[in-house]
Amino acid sequence: MPPLHSRSLLFYFAQHIFIPLSLITFGLLFVGFFVYQQTTLTLLLDRDGELATLVAHNIEHEINEYVAALEDFAHHPELMTNDASTRLTVMQEFLIERQVFYTGLVMTGPNADLVAVVPETFGSLAQTAIQSGLALNRLQPTQKLVSNLILDEHGQEYIVVGVPLPFRNQVHSGVLLGIVRLSQTELLDLITEVSIGERGYAYLVDRQGRVLYHPEAEQMGADVSQHSFVQNALAGKTGGVLWNAPQGERLIVDFAPVPNVGWGILTQEPWEAAVAPAQIYVGLLTVTGLLLIALAVWLFWRAVRRVTMPITHLSKQITNLTTHQAATAMGVSGIAEVDHLGQAFNHMMAQLEAYRTSLRRYIDALTQAQEEERRRVARDLHDETIQRLSSLARRLELYHDANHNPVYQAQLMDIRAQITDVFEGVRQISHDLRPPLLDDLGLLPALESLTKTMRHESDGIRQTTIEVIGKPAPLRPEQELAIYRIAQEALTNARKHAHAEHLHLCLEFNSHIVQLSISDNGRGFVPPTSFTEFIDKGHLGLVGIQERVWALGGSLKMSSSLGRGTELTVILPLANGHKST
To answer: What are phi and psi of 208, to 5 degrees?
Structure first.
């Protein structure tokens, strides 16, 4: 039978059901995780974007309050007086009253010339403030200016808020500039109060992209205008991105412009920190998913095993039946289709066992009839043929002695020699048909005689040995005869076909079986795989051995390969089931 190239049912189910479902499940998990990340990112961007927009509007509102206070003071009647001392007094009173807003005041004339500065120590800073307010010369009365970041000689950060002085006859009168020290303003509180996760923060940039405020002091005044999100914020755009920072960290960055000021507010939060709380649940869900998949694998394996185990058992029992080994009936599996198959097998096995029982009885009866016929023929040969040949040989001796003619004497002696050869041949045939040693002395002496004959025959195997292991147990006569016949047939086959140099016969007695093993180092052969092949290939001697073993409820095992010799093993139950002692 050609080898099957099919796969197991478990492999089939795994390939066509479990693996596709697992791939789909993992695919859904992957897609779900991707969607989760994108959804989380969108939600975080929306949240931080709303915070950035809210802070930007709050900063605008605060700047408007600064501007409103400065605009209100710009219309003070004594500010435009020609009396310098009065003007300075008014400006000092304003600073005392509005110190929450401004650190210093600068007043310029129509040509951007310095008119007054309070306090006077802000002289150099006033010049810088004037430079930042030059654009006010081109502003309408309702316009205002908020400067970029200004640093004094000590590195302190300032900004300048400027409004035009009241026009006289539609002519520009000058500029009123308020100097704001960032470290003392409430603007920073609007930013520091923003809570963005555990590690997030907001920072403020001016129109040039320099940092007006940052929670990290070393970042104050830094130029960050090269980043696209900073450029978008200064361009008046609102949005957010997931930014891969140069340090390798992924950051959620949202940006929004400060309306009517030109600044930008930006929020920044590490992605890992933002999703860390959810990652715990994602990890739990992942572990739970893997455990559920493992449970599904186990349940799937058990379910398939419930189907495959009975089928595997059935296959094994069918093999046992075909090789004449013991087979067991199929039990109930709980699966209707498998149980129907098992019932059919049990019915077939019962019928086959009944057939084999009948066959064994037939073979046993046939073997007994053959042995009886052999015994009768051996007895007839011994009692009649051998006796007559012996009498004929004696008469020839008498004729030889009575006749003195040398020619006749030679012929008579030749005839007598031929009769003697026939006599020995008939006696050997009688011995082979029914060895007297088996009946008179038992199995072991008969086997020893058999091996001795093998050693001394002209075409026999010189190195033939016999070994007995264990204490010999009583055997039924038919068992002794079967073992002898099997050994006789095996030795004959080895002599005729094996071309062996060594042959070993071993008889082993165990607690409840007797085992006969015969091995040689001959050329070997490819043993048949079924009883039918024994007959088809002409191994009739082996067929006879198999029939004797079946008749006695034993088992036969034969192993051989080309160039490696042959080993024949026969196992029979002890007589009446008795154990050897």
So the answer is: -95, 0
Return the amino acid letter for 392. L
Q: Which 8-state DSSP code applies to residue 574? A: P
Residue 34 has a CB neighbour count (10 Å cut-off) of 10
* Cβ-based neighbour number of residue 107 at 10 Å: 23
138 occurs within a structural domain: no
The pairing of beta strand 114-118 with beta strand 104-108: antiparallel
Q: Are 204 and 267 in contact (CB under 8 A)?
A: no
d(CA 226, CA 208): 10
Q: Are 414 and 467 in a shared domain?
A: no
Distance separating alpha carbons of residues 268 and 273, to the nearest angstrom: 11
Region for 226 from its dihedrals, namely left if φ exceeds 0, alpha if ψ lies in -120 to 50, beta otherwise = alpha
| Domain membership of residue 213 as a residue range | 45-101+185-273
The answer on 510 and 429 residing in a single domain is no
Q: Does 154 reside within a domain?
A: no
**In a 10 Å sphere around its CB, with 0-12 CB exposed, 13-18 middle and 19+ buried, how is residue 360 labelled?**
middle
- pLDDT (tens digit per residue) in 374-393: 667 767 766 677 677 777 77
Q: Is the dihedral of CA 488, 492, 498, 502 positive or negative?
A: positive
The 10s digit of each residue's pLDDT in 100-152 is 677 888 888 877 788 888 888 777 777 777 776 555 555 566 677 788 888 77
Whether residue 484 sits in one domain with residue 343: no
pTM: 0.51
Distance, in Å, from the CA atom of 500 to the CA atom of 433, rounded to the nearest integer, reads 26
Q: Tell me, yes or no, whether 332 and 399 share the same domain.
A: yes
The domain boundary, picked from 376, 407, 434, lies at 434
Q: Residue 222 contacts by C-beta under 8 Å, 6 or more apart in sequence?
A: 210, 211, 214
Tell me the residue ranges of DSSP E strands in 40-144: 104-108, 114-118
Query: Are 495 and 458 found together in one domain?
Result: yes
Residue where one domain finishes, among candidates 434, 460, 486: 434
Smallest CA-to-CA distance from 156 within 242, 221, 229 is with: 221
- DSSP tag of 498: I
Closest C-alpha to 148, from 171, 175, 180, 100: 180
Q: Under a CB-based contact definition with an 8 Å cutoff, are residues 152 and 125 in contact?
A: yes
Residues 255 and 332 in one domain: no
Same domain, 556 and 470: yes
Beta-carbon contacts of residue 262 (< 8 Å; ≥ 6 apart): 146, 206, 207, 234
